[in-house]
Known about the structure:
By secondary structure, this protein is an alpha/beta fold. The protein contains 20 helices and ten strands.
Amino acid sequence: MAKEASKSIVRQVWTRLHPYRKHLLTSLGLLVLAVPLTNFHPMVWGIVADALLDGSLTGSSLVFWLSMMFVTYVVGVGANAMHTFLLEKTGQAFVRDVRVDLFDKFEVQSMAYHHDTHSGELVTRIVSDVDAMEQSVLQGLTGLIGEAVTFIVVAGMVLWISPLVGTVSILPLAISFVFIRIYNLRVKAIYAGVRKRLGHIGSFVQDRLAGVQVTQAYGREHDENEVFAAKAEGFYKASVQASRLRQTYFPVVSMFGFINNLIMLGVGAWLIMNESPSFTMGGLLAYRGFWWRLQSPIRTIAQTSDILQRAHASATRVFELLNAPVVIEDADHARPLPTPTRGSVTLNDLSFHYLADKPVLTDVSFEVEPGEFVAIAGSSGSGKTTVLNLIPRYYEATSGGVLVDNIDVRALQLHSLRQAIALVGQESYLFDGTIRDNLLYAKPTATAVELDMAATEASALEFIRHLPKGYDTQVGQNGVKLSGGQRQRLSLTRAFLAKPILLLLDEPTASVEPESESLIRESILVRTRAGEGTTILVTHRIHLLRQAPRILFFDGGRLVADGSHEALVSSSDAYKDAYRQWEKEEQPD
Ligand SMILES: Nc1ncnc2c1ncn2[C@@H]1O[C@H](COP(=O)(O)OP(=O)(O)OP(=O)(O)O)[C@@H](O)[C@H]1O
Ligand SMILES: [Mg+2]
């Protein structure tokens, strides 16, 4: 099973490298050229030494061999530089592609996915794990292929000089490979743990930074430091464990590499002492130069395979996200919303739960006509926000369905459905940037007049004008530099600017003062009268409820009453009680 998974990771990496195969092949060709050229010099030493010993060396032949040595080396180094450049370029392209694809994937994942996955974890993966994969592609490819080719070429030269000495000196290197293999098997789980802990550190930091004010308010800085120190300690221990394993195995690998040095000198000298015709002093001298080039690939292969193990742990995490299915996406024959869109919303016997066995909505049915203005009310946790989220299909109904313009939302193209809708959530997000950037997010082509109009409708124009930089004021991450009421009115402006057929508002006036609330209420009524679209408004503000032509009252995930405020007060005791409660909250006397 694990083997299958790792195979498929190699295959997936390979598939992603496919567009760059020309670069890779050229790079490989350059490498195959560079290796013999840069490793030619010990051969010259051997040839010159032998010619010296048998007295055949002349001045001109010496100059010839020195020139050969120089030219081969220079060309080899040049080819090697080009080879490395092409590989690094490919590696970086690979990383860029993976990052972009990952981000794309995060952006289309369902809300359920994002609620279940910590954003700090996603950040760690897109930044740090992709980075670790880059090492595998760069160092893995340059290191492994390069050194493997070096090894083969040098082994070839060593065997060519003397098959006997060559064979016996290469043997211990084979044993090194066995140790590298055992090491890889043992270190795999450790590296998976290291990456997992890094992900936990990322999500913890992200979460605690978002809530740093709460930490300070309750004086819990010291406790948080301790929790974090324990997490950092876990990462430290796992990393040290990996380091210990490395420093146990790598010296053994080096030692076997060094033994071939002994064998070369020993067997070579013994053959020369016994005046064997198959081995010369020049051969011995050349071996002196080649020994290191045999030993170093082994060390590099050991190190590279270590990097590959680390990268494998990261790649597993990256591909896990890349391959995660997108739960909510266009069906095969999804179609766009017909234009002009009328803006009716129907819930048909809809039931929904976030967690199995915990029903949140049960058998909810209602129909909102095109252009209607409907309020949704109910106690906290009764499922109002959930109803709104089901309309743009942020979640999928468990049974029954949602229809927009009498078409099941599952049969519609998501893009077209969501384009017709503006949802202002209880806590709508503002991006780090200016007020203008945030508003234009809904409609990048909006004119200054349109901006002012939308801001007026949301009762936001006055405060924006009073800011020293007006629309160019920086709002900070999630609008932290604004007040709660200002943030809420900006979210509302953004929605008004989009001029949606379906406007879904979740307690849009919860943090604004009564004057703003009545301005916003007026804007909704104007929009309704002008026939600009349907509005569904979740609220328990009494003035909004009294003005709404129709109220859907929810209790415990069921729709229990449907009608105007007056009708509900006389027909539903549950509504009457709830309303009295809300009235008391707003007007305590
Ligand atoms: N992502 C989620 N995962 C699991 N349960 C959830 C999730 N979101 C909401 N719930 C649960 O679903 C129920 C309905 O939540 P919902 O947010 O729709 O209530 P609400 O009527 O909007 O309440 P409020 O007036 O407080 O905003 C609650 O019991 C809540 O705990
Ligand atoms: Mg809610």
